[in-house]
Amino acid sequence: MRIAALAGLWCLLGMAAAMACDRWPADMARFAEEDAAGVPDRPIVFVGSSSIRLWESLAVDMAPWPVVNRGFGGGTMDEVLACADRLIYGYAPQAVVVYAGENDLADGGAIEGVVAALDRLGADTAGAPPVLFLAIKTAPVRAQLAERFAAANAAVSDLAADRAWLAYVDTASPLRDVEGGIRADLYQADGLHLNADGYALWIPIVRAALRSALEPAAAP
Asked: What are the φ and ψ backbone dihedral angles of 170, each rounded to 5 degrees?
């Protein structure tokens, strides 16, 4: 009976994962086309929500590291975890860069849930590659959530201090002015997504974090 119950549980978990991935059919279809066309060996996988999906210059910005962009829709940290086998570990990545959690919290999700899902992302896979978590930004249209985002970032930073495979990357502070205010000029007209100037600030920070995670053997 116990074996049957466990089998049923794994079946339900598998169905939940499939449903999470299939919530974004256009993105998943695009990923399948890219996979069929061929992807680099042992890439750095960038995964998460639209802040990754809309990073159109990512391959150029991270060169000569090979990258795979697996940002999807308005993805959540729970969905990144649920889709990890499909969107991350199937590529045998040398590192994983995650931007997720903003949508979870904006939708009323708990900070603890974001942190727990992130922890499982590395803990569930033996010999997991380094995972770099990009700090949750506070966009102009989500200014009222600034305290929640800051608390989540602090919680992930604390987790990273206890997890050798995890690094917290402060990509939030550079998007603020010297007085701590939100720099609206770094966002698109929707007040939610970064523009080219915003991504330009992220590039050297992410590259430095990757170099630290991958040195000495794999850093370009």
From this structure: -80, 90
